[in-house]
Design goal:
single chain; alpha+beta; 5-stranded mixed β-sheet; 3-stranded antiparallel β-sheet; elongated
Length: about 180
């Protein structure tokens, strides 16, 4: 079977990475808050958290079609993560992230472009499996994704880590637009 995507024609099952969905089975047993946060989250099979997650864990990693990842994965970033946070336009944040972006030629006037570019690259890299698992706790599963943007002052590229929280059904939400080099 073939699926037409913005990437062209994709033949189901040919040359595609394996993806799994974390499924929590309640079975009337005690529930682990971390497992509940993972319930419904999608992972490239090789990059999924270890399952079982703990002794007596009743969760499973169930295969899902890559086509669902391609068509349904979404990213979201709140504009407030860029203005005022990243560019520190209110002076209320003790970090100095705005200085790095200014060195690269970016100002708050570029915040909307940065937001859209970071979202675009994060989605593309997530569905390609180019992410790293971060801390997992009762807040959820953190994911790091490397982003590359052109320096506006000399045309070279600069890359940095962005931080995301993973939610069910392939949803990523930005937690930090700059998490380090």
């Amino acid at each position: 079977m073939y699926y037409k995507q913005c990437f062209g024609i994709i033949q189901k099952g040919v040359g595609q990475p394996s993806w799994v969905k974390w499924t929590h089975h309640s079975e009337g047993k005690t529930h682990c808050e971390e497992c509940l946060k993972l319930d419904g989250c999608w992972f490239q099979k090789e990059k999924a958290p270890p399952c079982p997650h703990h002794p007596f864990c009743h969760c499973t990693l169930d295969p899902i079609d890559y086509i669902f990842v391609l068509t349904c994965a979404t990213v979201y970033s709140d504009y407030g993560k860029f203005d005022p946070y990243l560019f520190n336009t209110t002076g209320g944040y003790p970090h100095t992230k705005e200085k790095l972006f200014h060195q690269w030629g970016y100002t708050v006037e570029n915040a909307h472009w940065l937001q859209k570019e970071i979202e675009r690259q994060a989605r593309d890299k997530y569905i390609s499996g180019e992410y790293q698992l971060g801390k997992l706790n009762i807040q959820g599963q953190r994911v790091s994704i490397r982003i590359t943007i052109p320096r506006r002052d000399n045309g070279e590229d600069v890359s940095f880590i962005t931080g995301w929280m993973l939610y069910p059904n392939g949803q990523l939400r930005l937690t930090t637009p700059y998490g380090g080099k």
